[in-house]
């Protein structure tokens, strides 16, 4: 066999027989590059470096000054600082990155996703200096990067497209009559989005003229901030759709494949939260039709590399082209899990000029993979507003089988306002969807993250919700399931007893340990053993009476007249509490506890505050004065860390309920803050350009 034939057979075997992660097989006789620079940061930079190491390729990391000790910098063979923290001065600084390429002698650049990954000028600069861009050529980037042009190309390639206005809408204040004619003819709702956009930025849904004008303003501002291009397009909004995308892979020799689909319907603010492959919704014929249209589009722009064609799919399985991402997609790991292919390796091979190793019939669907995007976000605020801080404790659940964690952080890492708040991509694989879901549930329970607020409570509720389990999902899943916002896990009678009993057992364990330690310091006396305690526990506004008995390693807790048995490893030094509660194995986490009996437990994904007291202490506690909560109707505080973009009021102004007061930008997303009542502005404590923290006072009303 020739080297090419051997490599093809070897890779096909891996694709057909691999059932975890992706192929680790590589043919060392296949020469690619000696050194690759990764023009990115975080988890995707680490992901590319792993494949470079597997292929025997030296890697170069670039970093901002605040990222000098980041994980991707430590993993790479070389590292170059390209500027200060702001992205436009570092990771988007083409000149600095080109200098790093020259200094290190890198032969190729992998852009990851985001930043410069779809920047045609960057690709042109690389080509001019004879450096390979590990991605498509500039023609494909330009054609697919512009949503208006890409839609016209898709139409010509006989790809199903969404009805819309075939032109650019530039300014909200001077909307042309023909635009409003389109809006009114098929009727609202419509989708307003940035022509050069992606990642959910610069997108708004409008249900009436007022929302259309407001949406144009915010979309154009976000588009200008994120992409340097404020052009907008408008098209019919398909209500209650699924978001399903097709992974494509093409070489420079005219060969192109579709590597099955990814279901990406669980979203907040048009950004994906949970993805899975394959989709529960597609049948074989629809999958093939979508795959073939995706390949038609790729061939129409002479695409070469890994790319993703995104579709909206309605309830009748009609599908419409949304956009094509000319880069490696964030959620690529789930495709790697079910096909056994290393997509980064394939991109490197294609960039070097090799033909694809596979035929369409070689591409399998082996098992099921699910990805949860773990973010440093507060899920109780609009399903996730950014949180910043330092990871004081961090432990990935890699002790579990068939779990993959793509991350670029470690214990001690900082989550800052400068970059995306993603902590990791948590991926689980199983022979069936039920198996993958069960593993995801365990993985989320075993994931230890301290120091920042995170979205694990939301992720766990999503994957255990009956609608998600049954596959009854759409892009409206979150607002439909949680119309009043996410409130965390809602305890039922039995789970409430389990939580209280666990807190009581932990409290007694801590008390007994304290007695043992302190007892060693006293004058020797006869030990008094106690195995019965009367306690009270506060959970929310309710007070619960409990009686606890201990026999060996088992606590029997009577909660409100019902007995609960709790046993397990009560290691007070460990963040994880593996317990057996009434015969059911549970993984809890003790987030904090103090001498006053306050215990914060992560149970079923959600953090619960329980205060456990002795019966006497509970009686005395009733005499303690209550803290009066702050009147928030007359003040406006920042709900997240970010930058003040605009302040729309001044002292003395009268504002109406719902009127915009100021705009805060966090992670390139703009958030309008409004008045909760009609009132007069007393004072303004912020100005445009200022950086504010979560909870900072912005405006006071009379």
Automatic annotation (TrEMBL):
Superkingdom of source: Eukaryota
Stated name of the protein: Propionyl-CoA carboxylase alpha chain
